[in-house]
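Reopening: structure tokens for the pyridoxal-5'-phosphate complex, inputs below.
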Amino acid sequence: MTKAHFSRFHGANPGLLHFAAHSHHPWPDATQAAHDRYWIDSAEAADRKWVRIFAETVPKAQGHVARLLGLSQPRQVAFAPNTHEFVARLYSCFEPRRRIRVLTSSHEFHSFRRQTRRLEEAGRVQVEEIALDPWETFGERFVAAERSSPWDLVWLSQVFFDSGFVVRDLEAICYAAPPEALVVIDGYHAFCALPVDLSRVHRRAFYLAGGYKYAMSGEGACFLAVPPGCTLRPMDTGWFASFDALEAGSAGPVPYAEDGMRFWGATFDASGLYRFNAAMDWLASEGFTIDRIHAHARALQERFLEGLAHARLDMLTPGHLVPHRGAPRGNFLAFDVEGAEALHERIAGQSVKIDRRGRRLRFGFGIYHDAADVDRLLVVLARALR
Ligand SMILES: Cc1ncc(COP(=O)(O)O)c(C=O)c1O
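Re-run output (same inputs, fresh job):
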């Protein structure tokens, strides 16, 4: 689709077949000048660079996120170096003496899962996890569970990291939660991978994602879309959360910004936002919509699955796909296989970059691939796995 725009990445790894767009997405060439610009701004303006960051870089990045997700108020978008920071900050919104009742799925990424398990160990939270299988009824079962108890926090991925399964019933899920519950959608595997329209849910639910994967911007550019009108006062709070009140002295309750700034931390490396803006500007200038990117990735997946069916590789048949073919899916394919670790090593030995989550091998497809890359991948896999 647009290989030429990834020439620096390809040039740095000649011969590598990189099929991990869902993990570390290559950065388009357009991000390099932006990265350099950060260095130059830091040299030229020293600590005055923050004026530019808050007057230009942050509003621009907020605008991109709002445009891509259909958010009504860009200023509700907060940024942080990683999603872990938002997990901790959201948990800190709850009254510390009361046990937090959490409803989630059994397929959440480690950032949420680890923190939640640790809080559970400490007796701070009580968790119920809804299994994905059978995936056909996941949405209904999740909604029923939401209605069954007075949850404090409902946390769900829009696309599961270990299968690529897309939760389609987002609107029903957001509104089935008890009115007092915080609803948080982890959209990391959806953002810039498939079209997402939050216009009907952003007033009810928090939404988080970041730049490392499909947004092609690398680390340090995670965001949280905070529902407009939110008045929560996270206990874990950085001094950026109330810039305007810094001079006001310390009498009275700790102040918070009216908008999404209330979920900010403190001093951060803004180069991720420079790269994010450059990547999003580039996509827009080339007319690469998220619809097109998703359609391209899905078409390559189908080509790959057809090729696998012909190649008859016992350990990587379409039957190993989770969830099975036909399920709503994001931009990667996950195969559940016996001996995944050894297979992964054999594949890596042929200069093919994919990744593994436990028993699952993940192959990710993106705009820097074309059909010829998929055909090469099939040839190399046949050689590596026969
Ligand atoms: C679903 C999901 N959420 C979040 C993240 C990133 O987490 P963090 O920014 O805390 O490293 C990932 C990364 O793989 C992910 O797959």
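The first strand starts at residue 17 and ends at 18. The chain has a mean pLDDT of 96. Marking as resolved unless the reporter disagrees.
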